[in-house]
Amino acid sequence: MCGITGIVGHQINNSVYQTAIKKMNDAIAHRGPNAEGFWNDEHCFLGHRRLSIIDLSESGNQPFISQDGRYILIYNGELYNYKALKLELQRAQHGSKELPYIFKTNTDTEVVLAAYFRWGIDCVKRFNGMFAFSVWDKVEKKLIIARDRLGIKPLYYHYQNNVLLFASEIRALIHSGLIDKKINVKSVAEYIQYTTVNAPNTILQDIFMLMPGHILELHNDTLKIQQYWNINDYTKSKQDLSYKETCTKVNELLTASVERQLVADVPFGAFLSGGIDSSAIVGLMSKVSSQKVQTFNISFNESQFSEAKYAKQIATKFNTEHHEIKLTPNDFLKQLPEALAAMDHPSGDGPNSYVVSKATKNAGITMALSGLGGDELFAGYDIFKRYFELEKKGWLNIVPAKGLLGKVLAAKNKSVQGDKKSEILNLDTINGFNAYPINRKLFNQKDYNALLKKEYNADDFIKNIIKKSDTDKKHVLSRVSLFEIQTYMQNVLLRDADQMSMAVALEVRVPFLDYKLVEFALSINDEYKYPHSPKKLLVDSLGDLLPSDISNRPKMGFVLPWKDWLKEDLKDFCEDNIAQFSKRSFVNRDAVLLTWNRFLNNDPKITWSRVWHLVVLNNWINTHQIEC
């Protein structure tokens, strides 16, 4: 797990680019405190920051040069099947001229480069892991960049005037001194409405994110991007599997994923909330690990916010070395400034991830497993049921004056959910597909339109995902999974997990996102997957692994008293940022200030989240001195 930086183009071998790559690497020093490395020729500058996880010796430092000196690799991530690939590469292929590769290190890094040496860029189809890596070919003067299938590891780039800059974080690009730091107003519109900017776009103009499962190639001043894995290809039922056989397969795939992801030469553990997903990961870790599992739970004295008793129950059941890290809301508030400073891309939810990651790192852990992804694969969110049920209500489209009913509801309702229901009733055609963007919106359409001087359609990305994610009638829930994975999970949860854990040099692994498990879970039909009880299919697949009171308890999540904080402890901070944001050229000043006042006056339609995301955005703009 590391950070990578690069600059590629003609005639760049001068002090300007030498300085730029150093600035880029310095900007992501937190990602790799164990080693720093550089390499360059007249066309390419590469930088690397290393967080040592596998083979801690200096032989694993990067950039990593192939044995013939032709290829130079920089790599961020972990290859979980590297040992199996290494054995294959050490053997000659029958009937071919391929010679065995002689390895000089025990790193997965060398396996990545050896695989590229033998199979070219098709090697990515053999990789099981999380990664973003780049290979420079000195002979052909060609650059290849690849990103993992699910988008667990990030890769940002800027391409202008035949010069490509790329890095693991946006801040590396903006610290290079080679690009303009200009806000992308259309992306701001998307952020305001959906609390994030969906890849490939970012909050800044001309800085993009390489999409998951994609490869970027730069050769002879031509930049090409191609897809090597498409998540939409896997929503087809497996051949005649019974429910019991399906459960057995899920168990096998998840267990294998956990076992693969325990490979590390540093102290490791697991986040344990006491919910189904994290408890499942801990239970399976205990089954396959030869050493005692360390578990970490963030708890609060306030019972309504704390899941500590459930986490302790799981820790006791699996005899883990349990760490209950107690935080008061005041402890959290004290860490908020550093959490905001650590933020690479604006995110209202990011501080939660930062506090958990820092507490775990301070306990001496360098790698932790997370239950992220379980909800998306096994219908764990309420939106799965709402979507499924709405698909059955085609009769709503023939209700006389349904639009009028929507307007009446809009006039009378006093809640966010009421707004969403009225907006759904006003759709030309009511179904789950058309209602999905409305369910994921932060603002109702009226309040959203009032905030911006120019009207932007923030729904373009989500509607495009919906259009591409076509499934049959047996896989309605899998279609919701496709939406959730490609929007909220990839562009909020995974981005936050990476930027906030790597801010404290902690590696987070996500066993639920093993691509083989993802492919199988998407293929399971609705009859087996429908959540009659919380994530029923997953729970049944685990057998008697989890106690029934863990499996059946209501979903809680990591919640904090943000509403009170914004009106009390953080009021001055919020007020200053709202005032500044209201003066930005692209927003309507009066509408922004009105939103803040409505929140202070307890308007039920203005939740704390609506205000907080504006505060975070303005603070991020100030921190990075972005042109607006």
What do these coordinates show?
49% of the residues are buried. The protein has 26 helices and 17 strands. Helix 9 packs across helix 10, helix 24 runs antiparallel to helix 25 and helix 24 (571-582) packs across helix 26 (608-623). Strand 13, helix 7 and strand 14 form a beta-alpha-beta unit. The chain has 628 residues and is an alpha+beta fold. The strands form three sheets. The protein has a six-stranded antiparallel β-sheet with strand order 2-3-1-9-8-10. A six-stranded antiparallel β-sheet has the order 4-5-6-7-11-12, covered by helices on one side. Helices cover 43% and strands 15% of the residues. It folds into three domains: 2-181 and 206-229, Glutamine Phosphoribosylpyrophosphate, subunit 1, domain 1 (4-Layer Sandwich), CATH 3.60.20; 233-378 and 479-551, Rossmann fold; 561-628, no CATH class.
Radius of gyration, taken over Cα atoms and rounded to an integer in Å: 25 Å
In the predicted model, the low-confidence regions spanning at least 5 consecutive residues are none
Q: Which shape, going by the Cα principal axes?
A: globular
Please, what is the average pLDDT? 90
Helix content: 40-55%
How many β-strand runs? 17
Specify the structural class.
Answer: alpha+beta
Distance between the termini: 34 Å
Strand order of the largest sheet: 2-3-1-9-8-10
Number of domains: 3
Strand content: 5-15%
Characterize the largest beta sheet: strand count, sense, and whether it forms a barrel. Answer: 6 strands, antiparallel
Q: Could you state the CATH homologous superfamily of the largest domain?
A: HUPs
Assign the CATH architecture of the largest domain: 3-Layer(aba) Sandwich
Reported by name, the CATH topology of the largest domain is: Rossmann fold
